[in-house]
Write a structure and sequence with these properties.
The protein is an alpha/beta fold and 491 residues long. It has helices at residues 37-41, 43-52, 71-79, 113-121, 151-157, 166-179, 196-211, 213-222, 239-249, 290-313, 319-323, 326-340, 352-363, 372-376, 379-386, 388-397, 402-414, 432-439, 453-456, 463-478, 481-489; strands spanning 2-3, 28-33, 60-65, 84-89, 95-100, 103-108, 127-130, 186-189, 228-231, 251-252, 257-259, 264-268, 284-286. The termini are far apart.
Length: 491
Amino acid sequence: MTALTQRTVGALAGRVAVPAYDRSRLTVGIVHFGVGGFHRAHQAMYLDRLMNEGKAHDWAICGVGVLPGDARMRDALTAQDGLYTLVEKHPDGTYEARVVGSIAAYLFAPDDPEAVIGKMTDPAVRIVSLTITEGGYNIHPVTGEFDAQAAAIRADLRPGAVPATVFGLVTEALRRRRARGLGPFTVMSCDNIPGNGEVARRAFTAYARLVDPGLAAWIEDAVVFPDSMVDRITPVTTDDDRAAVALRSGVEDAWPVVCEPFTQWVLQERFAAGRPPFEEAGVQVVGEVRPYELMKLRLLNADHQALCYFGCLSGYRYVHEAVADAAIAKLLAGYMDLEATPTLPGVPGIDLDAYKRTLLERFANPGIRDTLARLCAESSDRIPKWLLPVVRERLAQGGSVAYAAAVVASWARYAEGVDESGAPIEIVDPLKKRLTAAARRQREHPTAFIEDRELFGDLADDRRFVDPYLRTLASLHTKGAQVTVRELVGI
C-alpha cells in the first residue's frame, strides 16, 4: 500500500493514472472556496485535464475552507500535498481512477485568515471561485435579500473584526486590490443554483455596501460574476470507496472522490482578468447560460424530484433501484416529454431527446448508489424552483400538468413522515414542522398542503392543477405508491 503524496505519486504510475505535469512548476491563479467532492470531480478535474495537455499551469487552485467542518479537508489534502484519487464508475461496472493534481495549496481560514486574504490579493490570482452551496450566499428565504442580521455577518462587520466569512474575506481582498491599484479578480460561482452569477453579485455587493458604499460601487462597476451551469452526480465518499481505491489501485487515499462518467459545465464568457482555456477541456463557454440552466433544472433536477418521493414510498432506497421500476421510468419520461420540454427555449448545441435519454441512463447507473433520501431533502427549496415553474408555464400554455401535479402529491404524501408500512420517514427540510403539520391534515382537508401560498402561490385556486393533484393524493392514500404510478402511466 502506497500513501498518496507528491513524493510517492511517481511510483503509482503503473497502477493508476497520475499527473503528467511537473506540479512544482504550477502557480496559483484561482482561489476556490468550498473544496468538497463536487469541486474536485468538476472544476479541479477540468483544470487537471488542461494541465495534462501542457496548458493552464498558471491557473492552479488554492483551496479555502471557512467552516469548522472544513478542517477534515484541510487535514486530508495537506497530508497528500493536494493530491486525491478521482474514480469514475460506469454503468457497465468499469472502474476508472486517476490522481488529480490541480489543487496546489489549501488554506483553512480559521487558522490564518490573513493568509487567505493575502493569497487573493496576489496579482497572479485572477479568479475566485465558489461552491459554498445555496445557503452559503446568505440570502433570506422570505425577502430574497442579503441577510445583514445573520450572526456571522454581524460579527464580521464589527469594528476591527478579523474577517471570518467568505464575504468578509473576499471583500477585504478586493478592498486591498483596489487600494493598491490592482485589477479585480473575477468571482465565479459554480453552485447549482439558477442565475448563480447574479446571486453572487447581489450577495457580495450587498455585504460590501455595509462595509463601504464606495467600495461597493467599485465592485459593481469593476468585478464580473459570470453565470455557470454545472452537472455531475458526485455522491458522498464512503469507507467502502476508500477501501476500493486501496484494493484496486494500491493507493492509501484519505478522501478520494467517486462520480459518474458524465460531466457538464456551461460557463458564461465574462471574465475581468482572463481565464484558462476551459473550452479545450470540454467546457461549453457561451454568451448566455440561461437556456442550458433551464434545461437542467426542469429536466434533470425536476426529474430527481419526480422519482424520489414515489421511489421512497415504493420501498426503494437508491436512485438506480427506483429507475429500474418500469412505471417510475415511464413517469420520468412522460414528465420530461409532455410537460417540461414544451416550456424550454432552444438550447444551442444540445439534442434534447439525446439529453433526456442520457439522464435516464445516468440515473440507472448502479455504481453511483445515489440515495433517494438525498434527493428528498430540502424539498421546500427545490420544488418551487425546479418543478412549479413548469406547472405555471404549462397552465399558461393551456397544457396538461398531470405528471407535475402527481409529483407534488407524492411530496405531500411523503411529508406526512410515515411510509406505507407505518415506519417513520426522516424529513430533512428547514420547513419540516410546517410541512408535516399541513401534510398530516390532508386526509381530512385534502388541499391543506398546497394552500401554503409562500410555497405554491395561487395554485390551490386552479382546478387544472388541483384536480390531478387530488386524484394522485387520494390514490396514494388508498392504493399506495406502486399502484398509483402504474395507473398514472397506463401500465
